[in-house]
Amino acid sequence: MAGPLAVDRAPARAGPRSRWRKSWLCARPDRERIAARERVRDLVAGRCVGGSGGDSGTAAVAPDHEHRLDRRPLRAARAASARSHGLFDRGRTRYYHGGDLQGVIDRLPYLKDLGVTAIWTTPVYDNVDHLNEKERYEGAAITDYHGYGAVDFYAVDEHLGDLAKYRELVAAAHAAGLKVIQDQVANHTGPYHPWVADPPTPTWFHGTADRHPKNVWQTWTIADPHATPDIQRDTLDGWFIDILPDLNQDDPDVSRYLVQNALWWVGMTGLDAIRQDTLPYVPRRFWSEWSTALHREYPKLTLLGEMFDGDPALVSYFQGGVARDGIDSGIDTLFDFPSFYPIRRAFAEGKPLRELAVMLAHDHLYPDASVLVTLAGLHDTGRFMNEPGATVAGRQLADTFLLTARGTPLVYYGDEIALRGGGDPDNRRDFPGGFPGDARNAFRTDGRTAEESAVFDNLRRLLWLRSELAPLRRGRMVTLAVTEQAWAYARVLGDQAVVVVLSNAPEPVSLDIPTAAAGWTDGRAVQDRVGGAAGRIEAGGLRVTLGPRSAAIYTVR
Ligand SMILES: [Ca+2]
Ligand SMILES: [Ca+2]
Question: What is the third-level CATH fold of 15-471?
Fold first, then answer.
């Protein structure tokens, strides 16, 4: 049967296209290897220099800098530098710093102990082996250390390792009970991909390096019932930052290549989920085809899409499960950027917590809001602690919300120690202790400052509490009370409930929380699992007193 895996139409030309043809003919995925695995639904995510994740959360490991986990001797670092074609320089922000897949493998015990349940790393595709002269900042060329500029979709970048090492990472993660999320990019290639000079078909890209539309970022037009195809075209076909060659998924050979490539990675490595870049710049018709092919072969594979926008009406449009304009994208879940903004405003800037409750009131727009990936920051945003007004108490409150509210929380590497950093690339600083010669090692308890320990210990406690209490992972979220700066909600699963009370107020508060919706009736004894205070349900509710900017998580005793 001709299908997404058919190779009958692989072009036979030799020469510059041989690399592409080799990729095209790659092996059939191994269905059995991952058939028994669970889908990544309920985890804490992070990005890779050290990721973290679990049934209770996903860990993210970030791009190269962020995640240098190993501590190989300098001799090995020099060897890595030679392999890096001169692109290794810890003194420059947009260069390779030495983080690699072996480093992530070495830190799996750290991530497991932290309590995360899945790892999301930077894209592992082979990126160009020389400076990227086409993308410059302050006049200087950069490297493609971030991984989003593929020159070979079937190879692992030499700075990170190789395919065997990537497979080893997935196997080691699975052995540790962690899942792996692969970052994929179907919208574009890197500017130096060999296809740019010699496209496999005349319609492989939208235009050429010399003549192409520029992406105008009008993402709202994709969902706009008043928009014409002409209006949408520059957003769908335009080259990202006017540099990244935009693949034409309407060319059936392109779409088949991308589908086969995604299947190949899953089959070759056994990964559990795919994080797909820039959803809105690719026709939803293609996402439907792509997700259908992946789910047909791997029913438990989770597809996580990036739709970077604060409007829940727009973001929800891209989640699969229902047809929009006749097309079901099939994308299982999305980053919850709409709640990211009120999370930052409330917990970092001290603005009303009510705004966050108001945002979650829009959950009815989503086919399934319970699986959204919630976050307080990632590699494309400044760090939480760099917001004006950010404090350790605010960071801890944000973590308490993320780990107890609906959704699958993401932990961006370094957030567990309140790492600082402004916008890209400052948000990708090296993790202390991840590199040879570092003055201290924050992977270890004795290498953390008092502030880092406070944030780390709080997050770890929350991760393990989430692992222990099933309602925090899978329970229905029920609001019990909301004020300007306080929010009480229950997570209810069958006859089990957990009641969370957050106060974002700068002064102590006392609140009366009605608990009937949690199934807690008069006389029931309860205990705060973070502060330790005991209580009893009286007159249909619980009297809670909280200090400035603090939280309580109650279970029945
Ligand atoms: Ca490379
Ligand atoms: Ca596009």
Answer: TIM Barrel (3.20.20)
